[in-house]
Amino acid sequence: MALGPVKSGKGEPGQAEFAPEQGFLRAIARDTRLAFRSKGEVIQALVFFVVVVSLFPLAIGPETALLKRIAPGVVWVAALLSVLLTLPRLFASDYQDGTLEQLMLSPFPLPVMVAGKMGAHWLASGLPLALIAPLLGLQFGLDSRELGVLVASLILGTPILSMLGAIGAALTLGVRGGSILVALLILPLYIPVLIFGAGAVEAVAAGMDYGANLSLLGAGLLIGGLTTPFAVAAAVKISLD
Amino acid sequence: MNIYKYASPATFYPLAGRLIPWFAVLAAMLAAVGLYLGLYLAPPDFQQGEVYRIIFIHVPTAWMAMIIYLVMAAYGVMALSFNARLSSMMMEALAPTGAMFTVLALWTGALWGKPTWGAYWVWDARMTSTLILLFLYVGYIALTHAIEDKKRADKAGALLVIVGSVNVPIIYFSVKWWNTLHQGASVSVTSGSKMASMMALGMLVMALACWMYAIAVALVRVRAIIIERELENGGAANWLNTLDTQDMQVGLGKPRQLTR
After folding, report:
1. Dihedral, CA atoms, A17, A20, A23, A24, nearest 10 degrees?
2. Which residues of chain A have pLDDT under 50?
3. CA distance A196 to A96
4. What ipTM describes this predicted complex?
5. Cβ contacts (< 8 Å) between A192 and chain B: which residues?
């Protein structure tokens, strides 16, 4: 899969080849393709998510009212942990075989390529989680409105988790104790996302307005999308030099 | 006078050594005055009686915990933009002190909470945010210790602290939101404007004392870090020999015999 400029059939040579959008599309297409090639990894993260969510009723008891109350928090924390577990995949294999260095040297801006990788990571981890969450919400007795808001909050929130997690993954490239270290670094930064994500579902469960929570998640997504690629690119450069 | 020459660890080392006694003595004197003000001169609180006096440790340490993180972030910006080793060393020197102040703030806060609110821990916005700040400190220390290459560790730590400091207001805001939504315990710390002037003065003096202490400790620690790094680089022998023997003894004990 070519990462550098490829002669496009149309237009003059040297025109659209180095456009940043091209780089973004190539990066996201490549990484998504690679991620879904080993479907096992994607499914493992999903299964981990389901198992962790199922642990809570086993630990706390099947009392419906209690489960309904803790459902948003439990699902969100499990989503957090599942995304954390998939973070090493973001850069590790590219770092090991030297592709990451080539990405740094490519004519496309590194923030753009890194944004593509983060997008692909979300497509392979956050999005499946968000899509399977309604089933888990049913296990906990959430009704359809709450399930809808749960999915919405996850779809808005999990990209932010991928973006912040990418910072942690890039900073700890090749460092021993990687996974736990990334968790230690990134979990404090995840806390606002957790608060607003779970808060949205709790608000709708309590009959209150959930728009503020979702709006703040959306704002976080926009700000994260604009700033984290630069932070991750800086982190990658730090780790590779 | 060219102050930029002190940006080199080799020249900063003796300067730090000369400054440490001043800051240490200042810290001790300010602490004595502050504690006298707080424990003896300040009147008992209308609601809480004598137990409020823990505020003279709790609030200054909480302030220092936050200020030190911001100072670390400033050093981080300098380390990344100027590629300055000494800035990263100062960051590394401040981190344990910042973490210690955070732990002290949480601990004294819990001790204060039990007699006043009835519980050691109540998950109010400030307490929770301070706990998260502790996690940020610990994360920085863990990252810089895990990476073996010092240059990479410095820059990675700097980036982490900068990202963390940008997030601190977001975290505080979100925790405050979470707290008000979930109807946390109706706690209210005595607000500054209603505080008796003696209490406010005592808190201010103690805050200055903590600040002087933090500077003194950070300077001692940065001297140790400078020596450690020079030893790692192998250039220590020549450089250490250029130092005055007297200066070596400040904070280091007897100088090592490095040449025959």
Report:
1. -150
2. none
3. 36
4. 0.86
5. 167, 170-171, 173-175
